[in-house]
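Help needed: design a sequence for this.
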């Protein structure tokens, strides 16, 4: 193996009031997932060498249609509820979360395999796009779903207490400056793609199929 790209997560930042969370921001992971992502980063970077080019990426929350769909990520689950329940439940709402369209992040994964080693070796890059509060994400989802699937309108937004306080605004200037990576798809594009996938019947059992929820799926597999 001559090149190793470790996909960490922007959730390693935990909670931050900073206007711009750059790659040198302190890591404050709040979950086991983000804790172990953060612990793996220095292990990977310590192995960087001329014949083993190691890079760490910290993607924002991925959104949009995938053949291995997940409905346990913020934009996707809000869209799922809007379409199937005609109600969007927002937990908290003031937390700011960065997002990135799945097509943009997968393009980055492919492109970085061909980047010059001197640009990416031993480096850490944020990879995000739009930073919005959960309340604003719910508004975007409502607007797009009601436009794409007018039979689902009106869609209600209900706010309740949050047990996940992660909040941060990821700055992705470094990856744009060094690698020229700039996302081209928006959250609206992601919601629109999901609406069209539901309309095409791509998720016939989405309401009760654990395959779309990582934690539920792992618990089920562990019990087998």
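Sure. Designed sequence:
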């Amino acid at each position: 193996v001559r090149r190793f790209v470790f996909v960490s997560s922007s959730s390693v930042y935990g909670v931050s009031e900073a206007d711009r969370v750059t790659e040198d921001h302190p890591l404050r992971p709040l979950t086991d997932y983000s804790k172990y992502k953060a612990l793996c980063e220095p292990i990977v970077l310590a192995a960087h060498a001329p014949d083993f080019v190691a890079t760490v990426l910290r993607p924002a929350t991925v959104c949009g249609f995938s053949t291995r769909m997940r409905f346990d990520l913020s934009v996707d689950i809000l869209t799922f509820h809007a379409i199937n329940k005609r109600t969007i439940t927002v937990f908290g709402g003031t937390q700011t979360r960065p997002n990135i369209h799945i097509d943009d992040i997968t393009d980055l994964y492919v492109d970085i395999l061909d980047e010059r080693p001197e640009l990416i070796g031993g480096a850490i890059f944020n990879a995000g796009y739009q930073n919005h509060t959960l309340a604003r994400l719910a508004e975007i989802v409502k607007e797009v779903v009601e436009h794409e699937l007018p039979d689902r309108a009106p869609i209600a937004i209900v706010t309740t207490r949050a047990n996940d306080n992660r909040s941060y605004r990821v700055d992705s200037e470094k990856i744009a400056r060094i690698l020229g990576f700039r996302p081209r798809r928006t959250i609206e594009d992601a919601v629109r793609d999901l609406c069209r996938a539901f309309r095409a019947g791509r998720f016939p059992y989405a309401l009760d199929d654990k395959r779309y929820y990582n934690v539920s799926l792992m618990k089920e597999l562990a019990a087998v």
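Residues 78 and 210 are 17 Å apart (CA to CA).
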